[in-house]
Amino acid sequence: FILNNRPEVESPDQTPGAEIEAAAREAGIGYAAVPVNHSGFAPWQLDGMDEALGEVADGGRLLAYCRSGTRSTLLWALSRARAGDNPDTLATTAMAAGYDLSPVRQIMDALAAGNG
Question: Of 22, 41, 49, 63, whose CB count within 10 A is highest?
């Protein structure tokens, strides 16, 4: 499953989402677009990540992407914290992949506490 977290026309050299979606569907791969810009995250974006993760819950794979991977990683961490995953475990997992969750750590803690 492919989750496109890039807003359209974020960069003049980016492939339009519709082209990626068409290629994914032709290859039998699911696709969704949940654009994330640099202004932050909204509940509907976490919902979109949840839906994408649900598509692969039974052992499938998810490719969530943005320009550098940071927004996709932060969105994943927020989604998983909201689902009750341990923020420390999420931070360790993200750090092992080269991503720092400190920009959203307080939100993650609050989301995780709301599920406890």
Answer: 49
